[in-house]
Amino acid sequence: MDFALGDEDVAFRAEARAWLEAHFTGDFAGAAGIGGPGSEHEAGDLRLRWEQELGAGGWIGIGWNEDGFGNRRATLTQQVVWAEEYARSHAPARMGHIGENLLAPTLIAYGTDAQKERYLPPIARGDELWCQGYSEPGAGSDLASVRTLAEKDGDGTFRVTGQKIWTSLAQDADWCFVLARTEKGSTRHHGLSFLLVPMDQPAGLIDVRPIRQMSGTAEFNEVFFDGARAESVVGGEGNGWQVAMGLLALERGVSTLVQQIGFAAELDEVITTAVSTGATHDPVLRDRLVRQWAELRTMRWNALRTLGNAGDPGAPSVAKLLWGGWHQRLGELAMQVRGAGAAVGPADWSPDHPYQLDAQQRQFLFTRADTIYGGSDEIQRNIIAERVLGLPREPR
Fold first, then answer.
1. Cβ–Cβ under 8 Å, residues 207 and 247
2. Does the first or last residue of the chain, that is N or C, have fewer Cβ atoms within 10 Å of its Cβ?
3. Can you tell me the distance from the alpha carbon of 79 to that of 190, in angstroms, rounded to the nearest whole number?
4. Of residues 166, 178, 248, the one with CA closest to residue 210
5. CATH fold label, 130-238
6. In sequence order, which ranges of 24-137 are alpha helices (DSSP H)?
7. What is the rounded distance in angstroms from the CA atom of residue 160 to the CA atom of residue 157?
8. CATH assignment of 251-388, given 3.30.43.10, 3.40.50.720, 1.20.140.10, 1.10.2020.10?
9. Extended strands (E) in 138-293
């Protein structure tokens, strides 16, 4: 891909920067920089209003390139430009990213016209938030082992029963896309369907329970379905595995570059702390900081190189391996450059008062999971070995 900026890209950058400067003001400015890893609990109401402000400005779904849904068209280069300007403005982490970056492209690829017309406009307006119902106890990285069932009732509607776990934003979401078994007795990737389930249902059909983490915060949730109604099936009954895999590939697109911009800001904070504490005088720590900077640049170049290569089976796994380990090491560095004081929290800290740890302490605790969630490192290496290098498959 050639990511040199042309005249249209320069004009697009100016438009994006001017809009953010005009709209990210007042109450919204109070949410600057919040909502990232380890702080997704912060300022939910204000960030939801910000989502709607972005929607009104036409800045949600700029990569869909589908007319009639309230979004503007943008090239890959312009999507990167928007991500850079958004990060530059210090606007908060997005609450609607699951709907915008995962569900919407999946509907565009696999959904019917009626499904696009129903679900895309509310996402583009910032009116409806989504969460992802994939992982289960015993079926995290091994997604083909899901046991959640969906059976048809008398009117042909699917009723979902089972448990999902590590579900981000479930406490705020209006909808959940759920991978469930719709064929009794099926195993592995056979007999699965991709269902769209409204979260607002009669009492007892859906139960969302926050998972308290060692940081004291609750970013993730368990979600229990007990006969919950599914409104729609994407890609056809029994084709859920194909749709789910198509969606997972989308997680490593422009969103990876957006993520890296956030990583760069976190690295800058760690470097600033290292200078203030004198940690940069330690040649080992200084070498690690330089290595983090160089690896982040390499990740960016790799993301740009693979951005337009749809269907590359190894690119998503390579990206996940790179950023998972990098971010985990950054969390460790954030503590090391602060010295012994990094281990000191408020005198009255307890799990019942989760917001008292500072941002870098929460970041360190959160990043311990970076090499596990979204597909563990072991799973990513298996994918590269089997699908890219052609090595023998692991015995089942």
1. no
2. C
3. 36
4. 166
5. Butyryl-CoA Dehydrogenase, subunit A; domain 2 (2.40.110)
6. 44-56, 76-88, 97-98, 104-110, 113-125
7. 10
8. 1.20.140.10
9. 149-152, 158-164, 175-181, 192-198, 206-211, 220-229, 232-234
Report the predicted TM-score, pTM, of the whole model to 2 decimal places: 0.82
Q: Could you read off the pLDDT of 84-130 as tens digits, one per residue?
A: 888 888 888 888 989 998 899 899 989 999 999 999 999 999 999 99
Taking alpha carbons only, the member of 195, 170, 201 closest to residue 180 is 195
Query: What is the token pair recorded at 359?
Result: 């941002």
Rounded to the nearest angstrom, the gap between the alpha carbon of residue 369 and the centroid of all alpha carbons in its chain is 14
Q: Residue 252 — pLDDT band, cuts 50, 70, 90?
A: low
**195's tokens:** 């269902």
Q: Are 298 and 319 in contact (CB under 8 A)?
A: no
Structure tokens at 108: 């565009």
- CA 233, distance to chain mean position in Å, is 22
Q: In this predicted model, what pLDDT tens digit does every residue of 133-175 receive, in sequence order? A: 888 887 766 777 888 999 988 787 899 999 998 888 888 899 9
Q: How far apart are CA 160 and CA 226, in angstroms?
A: 7
Looking at the DSSP assignment, which residues form a beta bridge with residue 234?
194
pLDDT at position 255, please?
66
Active-site positions?
251
Mean pLDDT of 9-25: 94
